[in-house]
Amino acid sequence: YKYFGAAKDLPGVRELFEKEPLPPPRKTRAELMKSIDAEYYGYRDEDDGILEPLEQEHEKKVIAEAVEKWKMEREARLARGEEEEEEEVNIYAVNDDESDEEGGKEKDGEEGQQKFIAHVPVPSQQEIEEALVRRKKMELLQKYASETLMAQSEEAKTLLGL
After folding, report:
1. Domain residue extents for the chain
2. Which of 63, 104, 144, 155 has the most C-beta neighbours closer than 10 Å?
3. What are 99-155's pLDDT values in tens digits?
4. Biased-composition ranges for Basic and acidic residues (predicted)?
């Protein structure tokens, strides 16, 4: 339809001629990434000089509270009659009553050294080399030997008892 003159001012026609404003153009991913720098990730929060003193103050307060709590617990233990035991705990120590039934191997060092137990069987260097040679042989046989040749070799092995 075409409207001329005063017909353009009619209530229903006026909305037809009003164009909706275009939405603002969307930014591409590259344009969004241009404004991202170290400050976006919070790496320059300490540069303004406000955050560090607040963190130091809070850290001192938390440490003081932890020390007070420890002292109160220590005094309570002493009041109950418990003795303080400040011994070093060796997390690598192995008890002598542990058995070697897990399939592990004990490794003894010089006198006075700790004993360590391997809880899984560890292959020797020679066993590893033999396994690698076997695997390489099988790969080469599969690559170059035909099916009939493989069957004949298996038959020969069974006849020879190998």
Report:
1. 48-81, 124-161
2. 104
3. 444 444 444 445 556 676 777 888 889 999 999 999 998 898 888 888 888 888 889
4. 102-113
